[in-house]
C-alpha cells in the first residue's frame, strides 16, 4: 500500500506538470521569446523550437497526461476496493479521483500557468525537450494515425488567412491598453495602416494648396514666396492646373544674392525644379518609399485623367504615423481638425475634419474606406446634401448638422455611442 500511495502521488504530480506545461507553452509570448533568444537565452531558443512543431509537443503532453491519469485511476481503484470493498470502493474511487484530478491536476496548474506563461515556459523547456525526444517514436506513430484519420474524414486542411502576420501583429498592439504606451500604440497601428491609406486621404486639396502664377511681376512673386509659410511652392502658368515647376525658397535665396540689383530680369523658373506628379491612388507606404528613393519631400497629386488634385509632402506622410506636427510656420487654422467638447460628452467638429485623425485622437472606429472627412461620411451615407439641424445616426454615432455654407457642411455635432444611448 505504501508503494501504491507513492506511485499515486507521483502520477498526480506528473499530471499537474503536464497540464501546466501545455497551457504555459501554448500561451507563451512568441515576440518575447524571440527577443530573449537574440540576447542569448538558451531556454527561449528551446521554447521556440518546441512550438515550431506543435503536433509533436502536444502529442507528447497528451500521451504523458493520459498515461499518468489512467495509472492514478487504476491505483486509486485498487486501494479503495481494499479499504471499502468492491461495491463502495468503485464509487469512492470514481468520485475521489475525478475531484482530485479536476481541482489539483487541471484547474490549479492551468490557472497558475496562464498567469505566468513565459516564466513557466522557460523553466520547463529543457524537460519538455528531453521528454519529447524520448517519446518521439510513440508520438510520431500517434500523429501518423491521427493525420491519416483526419485526411480520410476530410478534416486535414491548413487555415488560410490573408495577411495573417499583420492581423496578428495588429491584435497584439490593440491588446496593450496601458495609458503609459498609448502614443506608441497609436503610432504602431498607423505604421501598419500605411499600405491601406492612399495619398488622396492625406494630401492638401487643391482648394487649400498655395501656388504662385509665374507670369505675375517678379517682385510680387518673390514677396509672396518669402511670406509663405511653406518652403516648396508650386508654380503655374496660364491656369492653376498647369504646374510648370516647384520653387524651393532656399534655392530662391541663393539665386537672389546674384540678382539683387536687377530683380526685374530674374526668371524664377531657372531655380525651380521639375514637378513630380503621382497618382492619388498611391498608398502611403509606396509614397514614403518613393520619397526616400528619389530624395524628395514634395509631390503633386493627379487623378487618372491627369487633373491636379492637390499636393503631398513627406511631413504629411509622417503625420499619419506620429500625429500632427505643428511648427512655428504653421497657421493655427491648418490643424487637421478642430474639436469643441460639450458638457454632455458630444463634440463639435469641422466638416472637413479627417476621420482618421478623429479615430486616432478619440479612440473611435468610424470607417473611412469610401470617404476621408466627416462631411464625406454624411454625404455617402445619406446620398444627399444634408440640411441644417438635420440629425442622423450611423455606426452608433449621432450627427447633427450645425452650420452650412452653400452645399458645404462646416460644423457638425457628434455624439459618441455611449452618450448617444444615454440621451
Task: Describe it.
By secondary structure, the chain is of the alpha+beta class. The protein has 16 helices and 12 strands. The strands form 3 sheets. The protein has a 5-stranded antiparallel sheet. A 4-stranded mixed sheet has the order 1-7-6-5. β11 and β12 form a beta hairpin. The termini are far apart. 24% of the residues are buried.
Task: List the main descriptive attributes of the protein structure presented here.
423 residues; four-stranded mixed beta sheet; 12 strands; 55% helix
Short structural summary:
With 423 residues, this protein is of the alpha+beta class.
DSSP summary: helix tally: 16
Strand order of the biggest β-sheet? 8-9-12-11-10
**N-C termini distance:** 72 Å
Secondary-structure-derived class: alpha+beta
The biggest sheet amounts to: 5 strands, antiparallel
Percent of residues in beta strands?
5-15%
Q: In total, how many beta strands? A: 12
**What average pLDDT do the residues reach?**
85
Shape: elongated
Low-confidence stretches: 332-336
Global Rg: 34 Å
Share of helical residues: 40-55%
What are the secondary-structure elements, in order, as H or E? HHHHHHHHHEEHEEHEHEEHEEHHEEEH
Amino acid at each position: 500500500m505504501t508503494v501504491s500511495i507513492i506511485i499515486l502521488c507521483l502520477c498526480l504530480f506528473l499530471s499537474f506538470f503536464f497540464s501546466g506545461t501545455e497551457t504555459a507553452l501554448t500561451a507563451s509570448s512568441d515576440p518575447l521569446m524571440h527577443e530573449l533568444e537574440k540576447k542569448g537565452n538558451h531556454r527561449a531558443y528551446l521554447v521556440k523550437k518546441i512550438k515550431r512543431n506543435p503536433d509533436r509537443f502536444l502529442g507528447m503532453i497528451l500521451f504523458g497526461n493520459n498515461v499518468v491519469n489512467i495509472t492514478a485511476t487504476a491505483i486509486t481503484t485498487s486501494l479503495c476496493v481494499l479499504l471499502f470493498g468492491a461495491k463502495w470502493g468503485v464509487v469512492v474511487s470514481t468520485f475521489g479521483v475525478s475531484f482530485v484530478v479536476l481541482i489539483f491536476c487541471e484547474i490549479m496548474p492551468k490557472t497558475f500557468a496562464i498567469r505566468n506563461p513565459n516564466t513557466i515556459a522557460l523553466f520547463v523547456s529543457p524537460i519538455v525537450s528531453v521528454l519529447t525526444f524520448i517519446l518521439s517514436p510513440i508520438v510520431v506513430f500517434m500523429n501518423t494515425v491521427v493525420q491519416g484519420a483526419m485526411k480520410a474524414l476530410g478534416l486535414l486542411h491548413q487555415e488560410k488567412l490573408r495577411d495573417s502576420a499583420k492581423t496578428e501583429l495588429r491584435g497584439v498592439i490593440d491588446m496593450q491598453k496601458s495609458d503609459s504606451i498609448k502614443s506608441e500604440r497609436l503610432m504602431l497601428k498607423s505604421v501598419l495602416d500605411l499600405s491601406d491609406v492612399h495619398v488622396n486621404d492625406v494630401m492638401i486639396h487643391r482648394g487649400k494648396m498655395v501656388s504662385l502664377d509665374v507670369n505675375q511681376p517678379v517682385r510680387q512673386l518673390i514677396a509672396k514666396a518669402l511670406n509663405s509659410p511653406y518652403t516648396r511652392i508650386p508654380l503655374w502658368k496660364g491656369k492653376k492646373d498647369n504646374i510648370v515647376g516647384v520653387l524651393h525658397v532656399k534655392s530662391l535665396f541663393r539665386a537672389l544674392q546674384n540678382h539683387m540689383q536687377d530683380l526685374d530680369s530674374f526668371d524664377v523658373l531657372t531655380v525651380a525644379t521639375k514637378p513630380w506628379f503621382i497618382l492619388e491612388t498611391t498608398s502611403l507606404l509606396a509614397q514614403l518609399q518613393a520619397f526616400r528613393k528619389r530624395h524628395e519631400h514634395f509631390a503633386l497629386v493627379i487623378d487618372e485623367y491627369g487633373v491636379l488634385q492637390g499636393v503631398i509632402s513627406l511631413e504629411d506622410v509622417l503625420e499619419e504615423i506620429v500625429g500632427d506636427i505643428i511648427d512655428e510656420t504653421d497657421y493655427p487654422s491648418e490643424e487637421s481638425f478642430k474639436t469643441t467638447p460639450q458638457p454632455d460628452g458630444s463634440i463639435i467638429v469641422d466638416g472637413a475634419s479627417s476621420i482618421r485623425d478623429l479615430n486616432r485622437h478619440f479612440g473611435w472606429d468610424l470607417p473611412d474606406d469610401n470617404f476621408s472627412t466627416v462631411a464625406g461620411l454624411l454625404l455617402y451615407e445619406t446620398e444627399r446634401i444634408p440640411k441644417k439641424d438635420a440629425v442622423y445616426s450611423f455606426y452608433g454615432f449621432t450627427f447633427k448638422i450645425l452650420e452650412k455654407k452653400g452645399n458645404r457642411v462646416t460644423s457638425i455635432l457628434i455624439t459618441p455611442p455611449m452618450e448617444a444611448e444615454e440621451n
